[in-house]
Amino acid sequence: MAHTTKTPIEIVQHVASLTGATLYPDYSGRGMFGQKCVGLVTPTPEDVVTVIQAAKRRGLSGHLRDAMGLGAIVYWPHIQMEVNANIEATNRLKDYLRGYGRGQVNTLNQLAVLSDWAAVATQVLQARRYSLLSALDDELLVFIQAGEVKVQETALAVARELQSGADGEGGHD
Prior knowledge:
The chain is α+β, with helices and mostly antiparallel strands.
């Protein structure tokens, strides 16, 4: 059997699903001075032991814990913002899919069967980059096609121009 290494956030998410704990993506614990990390909220303080044991069995250590209302939170200060971006992105996708799938659960189930989402996302990003070309007139497209106008160089020059204008250093050359 092939063994796959999970990232710390994948382990936390797995422990949440095993224990029924709720993922808290931006917890700032004792002594963290506003720095955010990932934690798991348990319904009762007694459930903390279950979460800690499940995490340790999967190789996740370095936890701390705090009381939180009637429950408690187990958190890992070393699992921070970079993983929170994944959670935020996943939550944005969930929100979109909830709206999209309202009344269309079968459509969501069909989407879940597809496995090539990374390839599709790559194609969509490429199409969006190229969508600029559809707004250009034919004459300009011919110059680009012939290599007489360089889109990459021109885009970088305009970006520098706009950046210098945003920094208050002036405008056009």
